[in-house]
Amino acid sequence: MYEQITSNKVKSFLLVLFFVAFVFLLVWVFEELTGWGKGGFILAVVIASVMAIGSYYYSDRIVLAISRARPVSREEFPYLYHTVEGLAIAAGLPAPRCYVIEDTAPNAFATGRNPKNSVICVTTGLLQKMNRLELEGVIAHEMSHIKNYDVLLQTVAVVMVGTVALLSDWLLRSFWWGGGRRRSRERSGNAGAVLLLVGIVLAILSPLIAQLMQLAISRRREYLADASAAMLTRYPAGLASALRKIAADPEPLEAANKATAHLYIVNPLKNVGGKVNKLFSTHPPIEERIAALEKMSFERV
Question: pTM here?
Answer without folding.
Answer: 0.77
